Structures are given as C-alpha cells and as structure tokens.
Amino acid sequence: KAGVTQTPRYLIKTRGQQVTLSCSPISGHRSVSWYQQTPGQGLQFLFEYFSETQRNKGNFPGRFSGRQFSNSRSEMNVSTLELGDSALYLCASSFRRGPGTDTQYFGPGTRLTVL
Amino acid sequence: AQSVAQPEDQVNVAEGNPLTVKCTYSVSGNPYLFWYVQYPNRGLQFLLKYITGDNLVKGSYGFEAEFNKSQTSFHLKKPSALVSDSALYFCAVRDEKKSSGDKLTFGTGTRLAVRP
Fold first, then answer.
1. Angle, CA of B25, B85 and A9, to the nearest 5°
2. Cβ separation of A94 and B42 shorter than 8 Å?
C-alpha cells in the first residue's frame, strides 16, 4: 500500500508570493492533518481535515489555509509569504475511526524556502 | 493544554549498549502517547503507541516504551543500540477528549547518536 505522498518535495518562493502544497493520504484514510517543522519552533500543528471539513486548527495566522477534497486529498495554501514561513511542511493521514486512538502516518514533507 | 517534554537534546550511546530516550507529558484527560523517528530529509516514521492496557509497549525495529502514569512519563528504550538507530526521535501526545481530533502535540525532539 502506498504511503502518504506530498508534492512538490522542494519549493523556493520569494516574499509576498503564495504557495499551494498537495497531500495524498494513504488509501482509505479519511483524516488529513498538516504540521509545520522549523528548527526554532519544532513541530507545530496547522490544521486537520476530515470529510472535507476543517475539524481542528492550530495557532497560525489566516494566511495559512487548507482544504480537503472528496477523495480525501488535501491542499494547503500560504498567501503573502514571509521569510519565517520557510519550513518543512508535513502532511499526515489516519483512518480516524476512534476517538483519538488512530495512528497518524506522515509523508516525506515539502521543504519550502522563502527568499 | 497538552504538552510534552523531552529533557535531553541529545543522547549518546555506544553500539550494543541499551538506550533510553526520555519523555514526560501533561494532559487533562487520559493520554494517548506516540513515538516517531525522523531520518535526515525524511518525514516522521511511526514507532509505537500507548492507548490503554499493558504499560510496556513494543514497537518497530526492537524499540519499546514504558508508560508510567504516576510519573507521567513514556520513555523509549531499546536493549541493544545500532548505528542505524542514529536519528531524531519525537514523543507526542494526544488528549483523549474527542474534541482534540487527530491533533498531536510533539516534544522538541531528541537526537540519538550511536557510535560504533
């Protein structure tokens, strides 16, 4: 079974631009979450989608947004990029069967560099 | 609010020796606890989890972890370290309350270095 896939793997943008990252979950998984990983802040939760609805949101500005499609694929968008948005963006998926007991499986991440 | 502490930035062990990576947590309800490993330029790989039941949890690649409710700890262990175990290890917690959904709160990570 294929794992979580993320595209693109690497991305270079300049300040003020916007970017869209894509995530395809493991087949059958219905929940997709996004995390930002930086050396200074570590791993921080961005948001979670289940059945095309945002179920949970982390403490990030409104420039960060996301969506989930009917096939469970997800995209996240960052508008008006800032230098501090440079990070590894990780997508994770799970079956979301139980009340928080499911394991999240992570993709390889998208490395975003903002110049 | 839930939180995780990994008190050691780095752990150094010799190959063949036992290893321990420490983790303590704080949640309001019962915890669901996870360990992940990250190799350079890769995502996180799931190692093991504690949901309920036996306090000693066995996972992938010979790793195990012991849940201790009174000490609010979930230390990762392996009886005999391999050089290939050298990586960044993350402990994570999820609150049992359903409103938390799938959100994981991670520790800051511990770098494990196994010398030959």
1. 85
2. no
